[in-house]
Write a structure and sequence with these properties.
single chain; alpha/beta; 31% helix
Length: 171
């Protein structure tokens, strides 16, 4: 982002959902434009401080919480969701099980207080099991914004960054 003006500082974004859907990779892409094919499960919450750009030379500084997947870690997820302004709930378009868990994961979040962005990841795959329309319908069902991304190719990552920034400033 360079030396642009920061118009909001210190807001929190929780990134959560089932294991293996790309949560850590999304944060790496948003914070440093990096992607790695190696899958390493997240067992403890990590925090990244980064700037998100929403317009030329304008941005927001946020703390992104990379929350572990798996319902065994739910007790550690809820406190971070309760202090976040936004929540990114992810699933993989090539994993029907991750999509079927979206409503359960959304239930961990107070959608009256925290805005949820449902992110369908791995859009580059030829093994797509969940359509864009299915994702959009699920987002409507859980009262969330919706975007389909590919962290691997960078598809819609800039749009997601702008949406996050806009929602932070709007709130």
């Amino acid at each position: 982002m360079g030396k642009g003006k920061i118009v909001s500082d210190g807001d929190r974004i929780a990134v959560f959902g089932p294991p293996g859907v790309g949560k850590t990779s999304l944060i790496a892409k948003l914070t440093s434009n990096n992607f790695t094919e190696t899958y390493t499960p997240t067992f403890v919450t990590t925090i990244q401080n980064t700037k998100l750009e929403f317009a030329k030379d304008l941005g927001v500084r946020v703390y992104m919480f990379d929350l572990p997947g798996g319902h065994l870690f739910q007790q550690f997820t809820t406190p971070y969701l309760s202090i976040s302004k936004l929540a990114i709930l992810m699933y993989s378009v090539e994993d029907l099980g991750s999509f079927e868990e979206v409503s359960t994961w959304a239930g961990y979040c107070d959608s009256n207080r925290v805005k949820i962005i449902l992110v369908a990841n791995k859009a580059e795959t030829s093994q797509k099991l969940i359509s864009f329309q299915m994702g959009k319908s699920k987002a409507k069902e859980i009262n969330a914004f919706f975007i389909e991304t590919s962290v691997k190719t960078g598809k819609n990552i800039a749009q997601l960054s702008r949406l996050l920034s806009y929602l932070i400033i709007q709130n």
